[in-house]
Amino acid sequence: MGHEFEINQEIQVDATPEQVWEAIATGPGIDSWFMGRNEVQPGEGGTVRMHMGETFMGESTVTAWEPPHRLRYQSAPGEDGAFMAFEFLVEGRGKGTTTVRLVHSGILGGDSWADEYDALRKGDPLYLRTLGVYLTYFASSAWAQPQADEATAWAGVIGALGLSTEVSEGDAVRFSLDGSTETEGVVDTVLYPSFIGVRTDDALYRFVGGGGMIGVGHHLFADVDEKEAVQEWQAWLGRVFA
Question: pLDDT for 3-19, tens place per residue?
Fold first, then answer.
């Protein structure tokens, strides 16, 4: 007999809903605060996969996709009916803060269900806190003004990166962040038209969007001023969609 459970946790972070969405709804974003290597196929009916080395791979189906406010995905029931579902509810509070609520629910099976539930009850707050720390101290992003539609938003970014309409991993990227110095890189991740990842010698850039929204998050490995970098990307997006 399976045992139903539901664990509710909530935190407030110094980040926008769009920054939270990038961290919970993209593979590289999840990698930054959760375990294993993660992949996200965006959209309702898409797939969320987590790889733990060579021994484990978990797969869930996206059952709710409402960027940047609601994400839910659920694993398929096992032979004993056991499954797990994760739901993130994201609500902006103004002044750059956002409330993130995690609802972890499902059915636990087997004789060790009580120990498993205890581990989840302790682990969920830990990972949600890690998400909060990542968003507060390590995640930075800039967002363009909303565009008329998704096609317009992505066409602007793709053109500014020197890419063709058919984007593939390994494509060469060339752009000028400050209007004079050229930066070269390579596309390392494509989930077009929802996500494009770019790798340079000293940074990882993540372009994410939906509808008419488009933004860029970055992980910088050079000794640069973080706030200045955000301002540069904000200005770059402004020029792209001027």
Answer: 999 999 999 998 889 88
